[in-house]
Amino acid sequence: MRRLSRTRSGVGSRYLSGGLYASGGCRRTRGADCRQIIRFRDYLRAHADVVAAYAELKLRLAQQFATDFPAYHAVKDTFIKQVVHAAFADVQEPPYGCNP
Fold first, then answer.
1. How many CA atoms lie within 13 A of 43 on its CB side?
2. pTM given for the model
3. Is the dihedral angle over the CA atoms 58, 77, 80, 25 positive or is it negative?
4. Phi and psi of 19, rounded to 5°?
5. What are the boundaries of each domain within the chain?
């Protein structure tokens, strides 16, 4: 899957860590990635405080790592993994086995 470039501000990236599509769609993504994307999306929809923290993080990282995309994604990946873990803890379901 081709990764789209981020906008200059860091806002507008359409992919999550590891190339996961961030819109919640699973057209090209299968398996565990699909379930993680959907849980991440649903968790953000239900937790405005996490959305605000994610937006602040992305803006801060875009300034801090304006030309170092691997570092930007490494820090963002940690946040996303924590949110995905929390999302699966809410539903008590393992983060794998999506069969769209």
1. 22
2. 0.62
3. positive
4. 85, 15
5. 17-91
Q: Which of 9, 14, 22 is nearest to 62 (CA)?
A: 9
b/e string for 32-64 if b means 16 or more Cβ within 10 A? ebbbbbbbbbebbeebeebeeebeebbeebbee
Note the pLDDT tens digit of each residue in 71-97. 999 999 999 999 999 998 877 655 554
Name residue 13's amino acid.
S
Model pLDDT for residues 30-71, shown as the tens digit of each residue:
566 788 888 899 999 999 999 999 999 999 999 999 999 999
Helix, strand, coil % (nearest 5) of the chain?
60, 0, 40
